[in-house]
Amino acid sequence: xxxxxxxxxxxxxxxxxxxxxxxxxxxxxxxxxxxxxxxxxxxxxxxxxxxxxxxxxxxxxxxxxxxxxxxxxxxxxxxxxxxxxxxxxxxxxxxxxxxxxxxxxxxxxxxxxxxxxxxxxxxxxxxxxxxxxxxxxxxxxxxxxxxxxxxxxxxxxxxxxxxxxxxxxxxxxxxxxxxxxxxxxxxxxxxxxxxxxxxxxxxxxxxxxxxxxxxxxxxxxxxxxxxxxxxxxxxxxxxxxxxxxxxx
Length: 248
Prior knowledge:
Helix content: 25-40%
Strand content: 15-25%
Order of helices and strands: HHHHHHEEEEEEEE
Number of strands: 8
C-alpha cells in the first residue's frame, strides 16, 4: 500500500503508516508519497504526532551501544544464505478470487506484520535496557548512619559501578563557618579517610575511587571547619555513624 495523496485510507491503515513512518520503515517512493500527503492530511499528521509522543519515552531510555565485532559479518553471511534460499521454488499463493488470496496479496497485511515485528523487537530491547539500568541502580551495600540517640540521620548507598551516595534523612544543624565532613574507616591501622565535605545536609556523591569498599565498613559524619579538618582526621563532634550491610 502506498501513501499517495489521492488514496483513501481507513483509520487502521493510516495509523499503521504513521507508525512505520515514525519508526523509519518507509523508504523510496513510499516515503516521498507519505511526506507529500503529510502536508495536507491533518488526520495523518495527528497520527504521526501520537506515535512520536508514544515512542518518545523509549527513545529517551535506550542508550546507543556499539555492536560486537563479529555481528556484521554474521548478518552478511545470513543474508548470503537468504539470497541462495530465495532461488528455490517458493510456496504457491492461494488461488485468485478467494478471500485467502486477497489476504495473501494484501501489502497492508504484510507491512502491518513487519511493523508489528519491528515494534515488538524495539519493546524487547527497551525492556532489556530498562532491566539492566534497574540492576545498576540497586545498591550493593547500605549503611544507615545513626545519632547517639539512635535516630537515623543519613543513608550511604553503594552501587555496582562503585558509585557511593549519601542521602540525608534529617536536617543537620551546621554552625556558621563550619561544614559536614564524611569519613570512612575500613581498617583501624590505616585510620579514617575523608570522602566528602558539604556545607549543609544534602545528597552528595562520596569520593571512594581508590579506597576499599565492602561489608561492615564504617561511615561517619563530623562537624569540621568549612575548609575541612586541618589534620586530615576527624576533629569535631560525630553527628552520626553506621556500618555497611549487604543490601537485600
